[in-house]
Amino acid sequence: MNDQDIEPPGAKPTAEVRDVAEGPSLARRRWWTLLVVSAAQLLVVLDGTIVNIALPSAQSALAMSDASRQWAVTAYALAFGGLLLIGGRVSSALGHRRTFMIGLVGFAASSALGGAAVTPELLFAARALQGVFAAVLAPAGLSLLSTTFTEPRERGRAFGVFAAVGAAGSALGLVAGGLLTEYASWRWCLYINVPVALLALLGATRVQPDRPLRGDGPLDVAGALLSASGFAAVVYAFSEAESLGWDSPKVLALLTGGILLLAVFAVVEVRTPRPLLPMRVLLHRARAGALIAITLLFVAMFGFYLFMSYYTQTVLGYSPVQAGLALLINALAALLGSTLIAGRLHGRVAPGMLILPGLLAAAAGMFVLTRLTPQSTDILPQYLAPALVLTGLGLGCVMPPTASLATANMHPRDIGAASAAYNASQQLGAALGTALLNTVAATTTASYLAAPHHATQTAASVHGYTAALTVAFGILVATACIVAPLTATRTAREAGTQR
């Protein structure tokens, strides 16, 4: 990496000194940026889960077939995951604030279209459009946050709030989806995005404008096509593996094809003069550690959310709303972890001192649930609540430092790509975690039922859930071991500038 690829690590003035120098108006604009970016982050994350709860009602209303209903979820995931890297490049070329506002307008319009859908095909198309605009909205928002907050302490507070919204969004999506579907209509699971996006758009007009990067060359068309098709193939393979199994020819063909396309993409990016994703973004040691940590944490956590939903509803008999409310414990713990722990300690301790305890806390939460049996009593206080608190604290401690490390002290032309890589890591982790751990649970449950000890369906299901969560526990412990040497730096600034 050349010296020009990073910003010099010279001393930065404190937030208080900068506020005096800038005046109260510019100081307020910085925190206004945090508010509107967090609102957009909530839209993107919440939309990944809120439709799941509404899907049975939407299927009935639009007469969807069982074979096609998955596209209400898959269309969003494919467009979002496949276009993230292109969205990062667009954000740099047009300017992060302009791209952010375009993303908000498009997301609101596509959400309104989906809410008004009268056929399954129109709903699927609207969900794909939501994914397209989310793919430009997410990296633009993270880029705005990274360029706005540079002083360590205020950066820690800002990324703590941003991460809290992201960590709580999935759980809030389940709660909101249940409430809206039960007391309003499944259509409001899409309509609700419109006022939130428009309010964020109004707020974005007060965000400090940034300059588009000029003279950065034409779009890397080969890289764009390879990355979009490769990511889409891998995400689609993961989603199909849930129902078809990992040994399905279709899944194997998609997975193999996707990996080959991404391998060719990496080769192209090394050789092109203006790459979509410069390899220096991925080969930076601390940044690589951050991307590995967030990817594998999402593998474990999305499996965790899946089984919390299944277990509470099918075994404990909770309604969808009650199951979602139980997950609020996790959301509140994530809020505390990201703001009161990670946000306050950012810049005071090495990033690894937050990431590693966070991974181990989440692993401990998974371990608590592996002790569940069909005969367990006092499940909420003895098992669910401790697991939800520990995983929430872990998620809250890992997301702020990894988001900050992913974009720290970079040349302006690389910030969009780094933001997109961070969001793509989350998307891939979520898709893989849901498919992988669901497969483990289903396979283990089937084997348990086939064994000659006359197991009940409930006992078999619990056995399958605990087996999958044991795998998630192992993934998190292994992640801590992998990430430890990569994030072993003294300060956040050193992590952002090391080579």
TrEMBL record:
Its primary localisation, in coarse terms, equals membrane
Coiled-coil region(s) at which residues? none
What name is this protein filed under? MFS transporter
Please name the Gene3D superfamilies in this protein's record. Multidrug resistance protein D (1.20.1720.10)
State if Transport is listed as a keyword. Answer: yes
Keywords assigned by UniProt?
Antibiotic resistance, Cell membrane, Membrane, Transmembrane, Transmembrane helix, Transport
Entry membrane topology: Multi-pass membrane protein
Q: Where are the transmembrane segments?
A: 31-51, 71-88, 100-118, 124-146, 158-179, 185-207, 219-239, 251-268, 289-311, 323-342, 354-372, 384-407, 428-450, 462-484
Major facilitator superfamily (MFS) profile domain sequence ranges: 33-492
InterPro entries named among the record's database cross-references:
EmrB-like, MFS, MFS_dom, MFS_trans_sf
